[in-house]
Write a structure and sequence with these properties.
Blueprint (H helix, E strand, L loop, with lengths): L1 H29 L3 H22 L3 H19 L32 H18 L11 H26 L26
Amino acid sequence: MEADGAAASFPLAKWRSDFSRAFQYYLDKSTPHTTGRWIGTVGVAAIYSLRVYFVQGFYIVTYGLGIYLLNLLIGFLSPLVDPEIEVSDGPALPTKGSDEFRPFVRRLPEFKFWYSITKAFCVAFVMTFFSVFDVPVFWPILLCYWVVLFFLTMKRQIVHMIKYKYVPFNMGKQKYGAKKGPGSSNLSKD
């Protein structure tokens, strides 16, 4: 009897393994295409928003999604090692002008941030098909509470950024000019 159960579950295990491998392959292929990934996520978010708008419900699911996204945003904007909490031997944020420059390392990398947001919207979208998650609430109160929570959290994060003098965003790859050695001139030699 056990051999029959193991044989019956083998095709399912093989399918799951193949699916997982293919999913990881395409996830790895999408890694360098940041703009395309985020456009896809905006599309998924728009589909979710339209679903909630037309169903006129699932405000608790949307509120929970908003709190989760806020938590992800805080992780994305925070340094890996918080100077207020931890002391590290590795890279740290410079606190004085004379400190050596160290690159900003996020607590939550961009790819994981994107993947978590996309997955959260997909899970929330699936939840909208089950009426057990459609709890009747007065949604303007939830929206006001979330907006207040967002502004208080962002204010605290911005104060932290100013105090430790870091900017969690980089605008493209830094470009350097040609290095000129001593004695070199701008005149071309004929």
